[in-house]
């Protein structure tokens, strides 16, 4: 896939990390510390996106890339809501974590009338319901990753991670099932999918950590349970954290999930590796 890639006018000429001026990090990071991009496919669709570039990259060094797929509340065309709707996923780019694990982070924005995967997230099961083809926003997100790998030579193509929550959790399942060889690991928060489709993940031995709250009123916890059970039944060893109903996380399991102190070491290894 070789599709056109455009960015906002103030960064139009920046195509690699040596040319990018990294954000000035204060006590925290916001959407304004991300470079604004727009990815256009060959069907005329434009996918807004934001890219965080590590503050300090060393010549000759390679750094991971995290693709984040937001939930339904982050949909839009403003190229902001995907990172302002919920703050928890910004854990990857906070200054303290960037000092330990400097990573790129890409956050595309799904349009208001689309989903990352065309499946009803509130259904009791996703068994047998995976669409034959990906939605165009998910396909464009994959194209965005390919383009970033070409344009930013400091990104390590062997350490590309994908994570998402709610609607984006379902999209993350779709991305790893359709492209199992693309990812180093996947972190999936309160997302459901089709348990009949997990074989590519088993054969690739893809590391997966899924999170869900038992009292989730939006995406039934059974959606994660059936995916994890299907993987384990085939010999895979996904990691699964289910928060008990007594903790009252509801649908917001992304808050404890992205703040889990084991998450970043599980993804990236010991600090400074």
Concise structural overview:
By secondary structure, the chain is of the alpha/beta class. The chain contains eight helices and nine strands.
Instruction: Sum up the overall morphology in one term.
Output: globular
Give the DSSP E fraction (strand runs of 2 or more residues).
15-25%
* Terminal CA distance: 32 Å
CATH superfamily: Alpha/Beta hydrolase fold, catalytic domain
Number of domains: 1
* Computed CA radius of gyration, to the nearest angstrom: 18 Å
**Spans of at least 5 consecutive residues with low confidence:** 1-26
Quick one: CATH class?
Answer: Alpha Beta
Share of helix, binned: 10-25%
Mean pLDDT: 90
Secondary-structure content class: alpha/beta
What's the helix count? Answer: 8
Report the count of strand segments.
9
Strand order of the largest sheet: 1-2-3-5-4-6-7-8-9
Element string (H = helix, E = strand):
EEEEHHEHEHEHEHEHH
Here the CATH topology equals: Rossmann fold
Topology, please?
Blueprint: E1 5-7, E2 35-40, E3 46-52, E4 63-69, H1 81-84, H2 95-100, E5 104-108, H3 136-151, E6 155-165, H4 167-178, E7 185-189, H5 199-204, E8 208-213, H6 222-233, E9 239-243, H7 254-258, H8 263-268
Parallel strand pairs: 4-5, 4-6, 6-7, 7-8, 8-9
Antiparallel strand pairs: 1-2, 2-3, 3-5
What does this structure look like?
With 273 residues, the chain is α/β, with parallel strands linked by helices. The protein has a single domain (5-268), classed as Alpha/Beta hydrolase fold, catalytic domain (Rossmann fold), CATH 3.40.50. It contains eight helices and nine strands. Strands 1-2-3-5-4-6-7-8-9 form a nine-stranded mixed β-sheet, covered by helices on one side. α5 links the parallel β7 and β8 (208-213). The longest helix has 16 residues, at 136-151. Mean pLDDT is 90; it is low at 1-26.
